[in-house]
Design brief:
The chain is α+β, with helices and mostly antiparallel strands and 264 residues long. The chain has seven helices and ten strands.
Length: 264
């Protein structure tokens, strides 16, 4: 049978999602925990790989197993074998044609900035501290220039192996609440470092170092070297993944309103 899981993790201690030859990826810990419950080696497939230091409140994975456990058994069994910074939030049986990556219709990310003079002891692993004043309205205007389907070569990592740089951003917004500035972004898929590179460029606009229209110049230039710095990974969270209703994934998990529930 095929089982799907929703997973939450703090990526601070891990070399990204993917199992590594050197260092530890979140995937390794999840597979080890599930293998202890299933009594056989387990290989999981995720909805979207996250980089070193990136977090998730809504990663989705699937795996196949001949072992029979109820949903509660998979959830509690996995969590009893996982470290404190990784947690299975839900588990359910899905159809054999469900695929955590290829069945997904959108991925939803949030990037958090703490914009004040003082650094934070509590949020040092969950937000990018930017002490110079940022104009969130300018950042919001610049972000809207990225909506739609484009070639995002200017915002992909140099080592990105995706065959095509074309992606469709369906939602992008900048919201300021007190000292917090958050980027909420949804797309059919993302390139390696795409969100972090976008956020780095938006901060340059917000700081007054670049004009709003510069975002269009960077996008159309297709040159990563002209796009400014990459935002650090620890401010980024994979909040949720969307699937068709027929997939049977819990509806709260599918809702983009979940992005509003998971506040910094």
């Amino acid at each position: 049978m095929r089982i799907a899981l929703g997973i939450e993790y703090d990526g601070t201690a891990y070399n990204g999602w993917q199992r590594q030859n050197f260092g530890i990826g979140v995937q390794q810990r999840v597979e080890e925990a599930l293998g202890a419950v299933a009594n056989h080696d387990v290989e999981v497939t995720c909805a979207g790989r996250t980089d070193t230091g990136v977090h998730a409140s809504g990663q989705v994975v699937h795996f196949d197993t001949p072992s029979v456990r109820d949903d509660r058994g998979w959830l509690l069994g996995a969590n009893s074998n996982l470290p404190d910074d990784i947690s299975v939030i839900w588990a359910c049986k899905v159809d054999d044609d469900f695929h955590a990556r290829f069945s997904a219709t959108a991925r939803n990310y949030r990037y958090c900035i703490l914009n004040r003079l003082q650094r934070s002891a509590l949020h040092r692993h969950r937000a990018w501290w930017v002490y110079q004043a940022l104009d969130a309205q300018r950042m919001k205007e610049a972000a809207q220039l990225l909506l739609g389907e484009h070639d995002f070569s200017a915002f992909r990592a140099a080592g990105c192996h995706a065959k095509s740089a074309h992606r469709e951003i369906t939602k992008i917004d900048i919201v300021r609440t007190g000292d917090w500035i958050t980027l909420q972004i949804s797309a059919n898929a993302f390139l390696q470092h795409m969100v972090r590179n976008i956020m780095g460029a938006l901060v340059a606009v917000g700081a007054g170092e670049r004009p709003v229209k510069w975002m269009t110049e960077v996008l159309e230039g297709l040159d990563r070297t002209k796009g400014g710095i990459a935002a650090p990974p620890h401010g980024l969270t994979l909040v949720s993944v969307d699937y068709p209703e027929a997939a049977g994934i819990p509806q709260l998990w599918l809702s983009r309103n979940y992005m509003d529930i998971m506040a910094p």
